[in-house]
Structures are given as C-alpha cells and as structure tokens.
Amino acid sequence: MAIKISKCSSKLKYIDSLDHQHRERYIQKLKDVSGIDPYQVEPKKFSANEEQLPDVTFGDIIMYLVNGTSAYTLEQFKSYKSLEAYNYVVSGWVDHVNTYKPECCANVIVTAKFSHSQRLNAKPLEPWIIASPQGTVLSAHCTCMAGLGESCSHVAALLFYIEEMQKYRERVSVTGKLAYWKKPSKKSVEYKELSCIDFRSATKLKQLTDNPDADATQSTPYRILNLSAVPAAGISDMKQILQILETNNKKPSIMTLVEPFCEMFKPPPQSEHLLSYLFTLRDENTDSM
C-alpha cells in the first residue's frame, strides 16, 4: 500500500527524524488513515467540534493500554501506570483537542497538545490517536521520549479526555439538553499568589467532574484571612532594624545602601607595594604588537 503525503508539505519532517525501525513502524500506523500523517495535515482541516470525536469508552482504553500488543516486543502493553493519566485531564494539561476525518477512510484522527507541568514555557507535546468511529483505538503516537512506545501517559490522557467528553455528551441535564462539561484549560499558565491557587487534588477534581452538581455546594478551596492593615515601614523603622542587626554582628546586603552602615563596607586601601608592582607588568616591547 502506497503512503500518501499531505499536499501541505512535500516532506514528512517529523518522520524524517526517526530511525529506520521507528520510521517503518510509524508508516505502518499511518495505513489506518490511508497514509496521512497527522503532523502534516493543515491546521485548518482539523475540527474542534466535539461531536466528531470517536465513541471511546473506558473499555476501549483498557483494551488498548493494557491488552494491546506492542509492535516491537509482540507482548501486551500492560501500561497500568498510564491508567493514572486521568489526573492530567482533570488538572487541565490536555488542550487543543481536534479531530480530522480523512475522506478516503472511515477512521478518525484525534490530536492534542499537552502542556509540561514543570516547564511551562516549553513547546507542548503533541500526542495523537487513530480510532474507528465506534471507539476502537487502532494506533497512537506522541512526540515525548516515550511516545515511540505508543502507550505513554500523554496518549492515555488524550484517550481519557475523549472518554470524558463522550460521557458528558450522552448525559442529559434536567433541562433536557445535553450537559456541558466545563473543561479545565491551561492555555496560559500565570504565576499567582498562594491565596488564588486551587490546591484541590486531582482525585477531588475528578469527583467534581463526575458530579458537577456538587460543585455548587463545595466551599471555597482556600480560606482568605482578614488581616488588619499594616502600615509600610518608614526610614526610622528600617534604621532601627539595621541597628539591631549590627549589634548582633549581622551584615545583610541592604546595609551597604543605607548610611551610616555603608561605611563599614568600604574596601580596604591598597598598599603602595601592590600599586608599584602593577606598573612593572607593562612590557614596552609589546606596544607595537
């Protein structure tokens, strides 16, 4: 079967970075979508419509991550650890989930971007999965170091994301309309004060995700203390503190900027012997070099 290359590029840039063994396996996986490389499809061809996601269930995830067979070892993945990747979903690290259904086949490509929890400014990882419309996971890949193994935690998180979307798409609210899942997002992670950070665990967030109605009865995840206003320290207060530090033989750097404490930080004068020695270092024979 010939492998088709997307018209948006005459060169499969990502696939060229793989060694021979992994390149052959990558091409083999692309046969499920007529050889179309998800990394080479034009962004405008993808859809963010959640209705186009395949019907992936928890059983499909188990069948792939645990009972699936590795193309390299011919043994089962048994990636039980990846089943904990649901924590990444409720914590909001999975983002930009899009689908693409090639015209030449029935299977669906689902891509995502996965933010780094420790390196916020690093380029997001890009897992993808290929599945049938009924939810059978056919193959997967990721740009992380373990992505060549096809069952990394990022692939698992994407599968759990799709499964969660399916559950909420099928759940009918009291108004008769499909329930809407307020997806956590990490498009831009900003530094915040401790009082503004939600420290609830992934387990707690999962409980709220499974039961959205309970969220309204939950108390604020943090408690704001009503502190009395404290006036800013003046110059006299600062000098008083520095005097106490000086008495205890402490020399913080700020003392170098405040008089009269800065006097004690003056460098000692250089001896005349050292200065005369420096003048002897010059070699007039090197002036013309």
Defining traits:
289 residues; alpha+beta; 4-stranded antiparallel β-sheet; elongated; metal-binding
What would you say this structure looks like, in words?
It is a single chain. With 289 residues, the protein is an alpha+beta fold. Among the domains are: 173 residues, no CATH class; 26 residues. The chain has 8 helices and 4 strands, in the order ααααββββαααα. Strands 1-2-3-4 form a 4-stranded antiparallel sheet, sandwiched between helices. The N and C termini lie far apart (71 Å). The N terminus is likely disordered. This is SWIM-type domain-containing protein. GO terms for molecular function: zinc ion binding. InterPro entries: Znf_SWIM. It comes from Sinanodonta woodiana (Chinese pond mussel). Keywords: Metal-binding, Zinc, Zinc-finger.
Secondary-structure-based class equals: alpha+beta
Flag low-confidence runs. 1-12
Round the mean pLDDT to the nearest integer and report it: 76
- Physical arrangement of strands within the biggest beta sheet: 1-2-3-4
Note the gap between the termini. Answer: 71 Å
Count helical runs: 8
Looking at the structure, what is the overall shape?
Answer: elongated
Rg is 31 Å
Helix content: 25-40%
